[in-house]
Design a protein that fits this description.
The protein is α+β, with helices and mostly antiparallel strands and 301 residues long. Helices cover 57% and strands 12% of the residues. It has a five-stranded antiparallel sheet with strand order 2-1-5-4-3. α3 packs parallel to α6.
Length: 301
Amino acid sequence: MRLRTQLTLVVTALVALVVALAGLVLVVRIDHRDRDELDRVLAARAAQVSAAATKNGSLPTDGSFAIRLIDDGDLLKQIGSSAGFPLPARDGYSTVSSGDDEWRSLAQTLVTGAQLQILVSLDDLEEQHTDNVLIVDLLVLLAALLSAAGVWFATGLVLRPFQRLLTAARELDAADPDQRLPEVKSPREVAELTSALNDLLVRARSEKPYSPEPEPEPEPELEPEPEAEHEAEHEPVVQPEPVPAPAHNPAADLRPSLAELGAQLDQLLDNPDMPATQRHLILAVMADDHRRMVALVDGDG
């Protein structure tokens, strides 16, 4: 997988995670706010019902909430809903279940000892919660798409100098003495590496490569004639002059080091976000290779 794709996936995942966590916190806070608002509505309903019951003995409701009157754990009266609720009721605020539905309950003990319970369905709150979760999901998806597009474009701009340098290094022609790597001004690491490679190319091409001359074919030996054998025995033997050994070719020794340096350069280009320790180690190895190649060119290797 290319570095550009890796960066895009990592940043997109991080952005989606942050937006999802922020949305989760927001949804929880909205749920708490809605629950507190519902509790205030229950308290107001309970005050209205208590006032009406004290005045004329009725339990008024508009159908949006249920009212129950409980005495010693027995249900005396229930209006506003036919759903079955658990008995006995607990004083204060609580959440009770009736089948598959959830209800918010507020129970108060009257001076007579009976309990007045007001209940409101939580269906509206559940629908609001579902809508909030859907909005957060859409925001996560939108943030992921925008971050992926932005990172893909940004990494393309950042990696463009590395790609130009890599392409130019692959297209170098050893037979062209004037060919150089393109000058790069930023980022600084690429500019320094380009300058060092161009200097190395100048040193390598300044040395004329050695081309050994073909050795002459040996002449066939002629057998001495019979009458000249006696004279040949008394002639001194002439030793052949030693053939000088071919001069050392530094350009040939530079090829493995250049190949290794190119592999290390590829590793740096493919992993710009590698740890600093690993990057420094690779740069140290490249510096050693550079010194070794300089020594070979200068004749010290």
